[in-house]
Design brief:
With 74 residues, this protein is mainly alpha-helical. It has helices at residues 2-18, 30-33, 44-58. The chain is flat, with a radius of gyration of 23 Å.
């Protein structure tokens, strides 16, 4: 009983001590993070084409939201 309580306490302390880390971008790092190749989609046109192909194959919009029902009418 005491061993399981100490294990639970140890796990609780470990979980609470991990916490959130504060990540700040330094001013001298902003230049490299603002480069075009660091973007989520470096080529917006290619990303749009791939999203269209994904929609055509899967019949779903990946997180971009959209109206309409399952009947195919928008």
């Amino acid at each position: 009983m005491a061993r399981s309580m100490s294990l639970a306490l140890l796990l609780a302390i470990a979980a609470l001590s991990s916490g959130c880390s504060v990540f700040q971008v330094r001013p001298w790092e902003r230049e490299s993070l603002a480069r075009r190749d660091m973007a989520w989609d470096p080529d917006p046109l290619q990303a749009q084409v791939e999203a269209h192909i994904h929609f055509a194959k899967e019949a779903s919009l990946a997180g971009s939201g959209g109206g309409g029902g399952g009947c195919g009418c928008n």
